[in-house]
Amino acid sequence: MDWSKAKTILITAFTIINIFLGTNLWFKNNDINKVTAVSVKEMEEVKRFLKQEGIIVDADIPKKVEPQPFLMIGYKKTDAKKVAQSFFHDLKDVSYEKVKDSTTFQKGFQQLIVMENGIISYFNNEEKGEIYKDLDENRARELAEEFIKKHGGFPPNAEYDRTIYYNQSKSYLVEYVQVYRGKFLASSYIDVLVTPSGIKSYYCSWLEPLGYSGNPKKVISPAHALLKMVDILEKVEKPVRVTGIHLGYYSRYYNAEKWQAVPVWRVSVEKDEYYYINGYTGELEQ
To answer: What is the pTM of this model?
Structure first.
């Protein structure tokens, strides 16, 4: 038996119990509006414990959270020909092949795939050498936005989310996410890969929010979600810095007309990693 690991598990369990026992008892007796709240003292205890585990919390933590319902979402139908025209204009020299659930358009080194469920993928494999000198994060974002505006424009409620830098290729992945009534919808996003030799790919999965479903339910506290990171980051080299925690919605993709997205806490680690913690169960969404 690994006594060291067992000891860590016990310490974690007792810490969580001590932090949340009083709060949970209070909520059982005051469950009228099911608001989730964490005191400053409790949050400081959580931060102190996480720091001992090599996880430094450098983010604003919401102190009070209203109950949240499920969010109904569905795919947004897309006209493949119109999408292709936004990329290739008159389609004169464009070949295409339609299969069961998608249409693939090809023009030289460029390929565009439009799925019936609205997902769009674009690739450009042409090698032009270095055309963007001194490419940095700001310039990459400018180029990504120019590309999107030129090829169909931004969909409603799109907001800039983050830029990931890939050191080996000196390229930037610029990401945009859909925001619905003030909360992100993680499964609805756009990615643009900007490299020194040009924009190499574009991916758009833009879902359609159909309104809330069911009665609002109490969600776990952000402190609970942060404590979950001890297990999630167990094998990650420490120290690790948490740079943000926000409430939004997340869903896997389903072959259906509509389905439910669940409230989640999105925990941002350093700058390049997001972890989604189910707001009802506290489990990691994958």
So the answer is: 0.87
